[in-house]
């Protein structure tokens, strides 16, 4: 049984210089989700530990960030992707 004190949500937005990126892929320690039209994403029921989170979308440079999550809170992690050149 997962205690709400021990589980955490990771939420955020994936954007470019031109605005939100809907349809971007966000991977958190092997679990994957796709951003909504407004660029938002969410992972829930995360255990307290270090996570590696990657956001990517075709035509943009992928970005990976590490974040330490402690239990019982909502953590925000936003990404600003740059367009790929070439």
Would you mind describing this structure in some detail?
By secondary structure, the protein is mainly β. It is built from no helices and nine strands. It has strands spanning 8-16, 19-20, 25-28, 31-34, 40-46, 49-56, 63-69, 74-76, 79-80. A hairpin with a 6-residue loop joins strand 6 (49-56) and strand 7. 21% of the residues are buried. The mean pLDDT is 91.
How many E-type strands? 9
Coarse shape = elongated
Mean pLDDT: 91
Q: Strand share of the residues?
A: over 45%
Number of helices: 0
Rg result: 13 Å
Helix content: under 10%
Give the N-to-C terminal Cα separation: 49 Å
- Structural class of the secondary structure composition? mainly beta
**What is the string of SSEs from the N terminus onward?**
EEEEEEEEE
The major beta sheet can be summarized as: 5 strands, mixed
Contiguous low-pLDDT stretches (5 residues minimum) are: none
């Amino acid at each position: 049984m997962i205690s709400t004190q021990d589980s955490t949500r990771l939420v955020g937005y994936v954007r470019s210089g031109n605005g939100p990126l809907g349809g971007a892929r966000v991977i958190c320690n092997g679990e994957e989700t796709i951003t909504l039209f407004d660029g938002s994403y969410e992972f829930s029921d995360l255990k307290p530990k270090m996570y590696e989170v990657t956001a990517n979308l075709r035509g943009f440079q992928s970005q990976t960030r590490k974040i330490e999550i402690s239990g019982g809170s909502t953590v925000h992690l936003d990404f600003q992707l740059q367009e790929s050149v070439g």
